[in-house]
Design a protein that fits this description.
- It is built from six helices and two strands.
- The chain is mainly alpha-helical and about 140 residues long.
- Helix content is about 65%, strand content about 10%.
- The chain has a two-stranded antiparallel ribbon.
- The chain has a single domain (about 5-140), classed as Winged helix-like DNA-binding domain superfamily/Winged helix DNA-binding domain (Arc Repressor Mutant, subunit A, Orthogonal Bundle), CATH 1.10.10.10.
- The chain has helices spanning about 5-25, 35-45, 55-60, 65-75, 100-120, 125-140, and strands at about 80-85, 90-95.
Amino acid sequence: MEEKYIGMEISKTNNLLIRSCLKNDFRDVNAATGKNAWIIGYIAEHSDRDVFQRDIEEDFSIRRSTVSNMISLMEQKGYIKRESVDYDARLKKLVLTPKALDIHRRVYDNIIVSEQKMRKDISEEELKMFFDVLEKIQKNIGE
């Protein structure tokens, strides 16, 4: 049996996922590149609390400088605003604009379709094992 490499398989899967998403009617949403769309989704899904740059850094395992650049570009594109919070003048929460909320709704619908497609013929037990293994891989890489 040919030896498989985890990194290569993850990369191939990511490429297939991106290609699959591009087949969907994303043409007018493509300006919100992959990571931008994930960040928009993250902020939208955490609308019950204030979201800050450090939350993005921690939850996506992205360096501070990278997140800072991404947020600046997203601000320029009109996707997010930074707003002060009452309880700490040093902090700026990230707030989605109506433009980003529209993108989120359309991207979310496509994510649901993609998830259903990816989960086809995979049992709950297999999914649990997959996520457990993936979590271990992420932990190992993060050490």
